[in-house]
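dude i think i finally got it to work??
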Amino acid sequence: MSSMANKVRHTISPVFDERSRVLMLGTMPSPKSRETGFYYGHPQNRFWKVMAALFDEKLPVTNDEKRDLALRHGIALWDVLAECTIEGASDGSIADCVPNDIGSLFARAPIEAVFCTGAKAAELYTKHCEVQTHLACTRLPSTSPANAAKSLEQLVEDYRAILPYCLQGRRTGGGLRSRG
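look at this
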């Protein structure tokens, strides 16, 4: 059954707290993310490089450092799907979707904006979750290594869209502004 689609369950808990105003959603954790037990866990995924650049911080390495960076800036992390059939990490192969209960997170965190990290995540959120949250998502480009069309600099520029909703955090220096 190698290279065939497998039924996959989401096993990583959502990251959020009472200050989370931005919800960043992917589709489903990749095999590497499931192995590392945290979001955007593939070493070539540029999500954490983008976040570090946006907030002028050093690149987080451990899961705790990644969680801390997200929470300090008011960012919640989760995925649209609770389970699906998927081939490897290919969003194009996703079928048999069961969405996460995104509405339950809205009941526990003051989410003001939803950003989906890729076209498939945005499509699935709009189809399955927007009816619960009553909040449209903003689609951002994927930070996956499969999205070689965007440079790191272009991704950072695109992801600046989250800044008006983020907390500045205790350790962030000046210089980053949502306008410019």
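Residues 141 and 150 are 8 Å apart (CA to CA).
im so relieved honestly
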